[in-house]
Amino acid sequence: MAYAYATGASSLAGGVTPSRGQGFYFWNGALVGHDFTSSFDQDRTDFDMSKVQQIKKGETTEAGVVGLLGRPQGIYTYPLIPDKGHRAIVYLYSQTKGSAFNLKFYRQLLLVTLDGDGLVKDSEFTSSGER
After folding, report:
1. What are the boundaries of each domain within the chain?
2. What's the whole-model pTM score?
3. Cα(110)–Cα(131) distance, rounded to whole angstroms?
């Protein structure tokens, strides 16, 4: 289930179109994840990807990740992540800019999988498009 909202009435710095998106993911009738992204100034979900390398498997705690990157924008569980019994905190940012005939999309996603003790088990960062 997804919700999206965008307005072209005003653009943000760099010509970014203000938009928000919320996703809810279900499997066998149960909620297994949710995420949120925004390019509005007041609730912008952009995060500093240069800090991702400071997250260390088996060392960094959930509180440590939040201290580096701020509050996560979602949580995923199995089957959105491969490990049953674990969960991942989600950092998500997407933006659109340009005109109707020259749109440029950008998206960055960080999944930080936590074990039962709240230690980082894995992290996966992806980005696509043009910032």
Report:
1. 2-129
2. 0.90
3. 16
